[in-house]
Amino acid sequence: MAKKLSNLAKAVLIVLASLLVVFFIASVTDIKVTLDAMRNISLSWIIAIFSIVFFDWFSETLTVWLFARSYKAKVSLIYLFKNTLAGRFFSAITPFSTGGQPAQIAFLGQRGVEYGQATAMLLSRFLFYQIVVTGASVFGLLRAYSMFAKRISNLALLAFFGFALNGFVLFLLLLFTLNKSLAEKTISKISKFFVSLRIVKRKELFQQKLLEQTRLFHDCMTKSAKNPLISVLALLMALLEVVAKISVTYFVARSLNIASSYFDIAMTQLVVFLVASFVPTPGATGASEGVYTLFFKFLFGPKTVAALLVWRFFTYYLNIIVGGLATAHELGWMRSKKP
Hints:
Elements: H1 2-27, H2 31-39, H3 43-70, H4 77-92, H5 100-110, H6 115-148, H7 155-178, H8 180-196, H9 203-225, H10 228-255, H11 262-276, H12 287-300, H13 304-337
């Protein structure tokens, strides 16, 4: 219960911090224009925004389910959808979004999925997603650079840091996935660290189990690598997920009656992802709002803050709300299963 309250308190504090940043940005702009834009927002386009966000969630779920089927893991598509939402919640409240996958793996383990299988399912999906989002962000930067190079100083430096971080994460994923010996050595050192802290009683059994799950993880990853159809489908689903993410801002613009091309908005959104990705705050709080305003003010003009509020709600706050409910439901299920 205390852990549940701690996560809730953390989520509330992060949301408040994000809102403070938004209010600060709003205070130095024309608040009347923002309020007028929010009052005249199109309900039909808001429904369309929610639909594209739902598709974003579902496409991630479907990719994980694809690997689950490949690894013969006994888990339903409906549960994986709830697991995805719980992962979004923990990603939103942890630095660099690092808490999502460990939480998902822990929940899957409680549902009877082998930890090695769960890790392989989620890392496989993340690997293909990282390939697509890194490539798409660089493509977006190259296409949008001419629009912003003269308007935003040090754009190349900001983009470099974002690309370096995404590229480094992708490199580590590939290295850990392809090098079985390195993975086993890393897991062995981690197990010894836990043993040294004396929080593990049966150290031999603990180390054996970790290595078994590491080998299972590599067996699953090798199986995926030998199945080109799975790889192609995973890449396609990752591409659809990225397209959904970058399309939200266009739908937001339409809901506020902002005239701008889909291509310009999509390319700008990719640059925003790239620049904000190296900020360590949970959900890139502060950076996302600032970078979004910095870039989209050239496309959205005086309605930029209104667009920011709607975009941030659907891409961040909604993940905390819906993901928090999914997490609470899962924790409730776990408590009900305790003897």
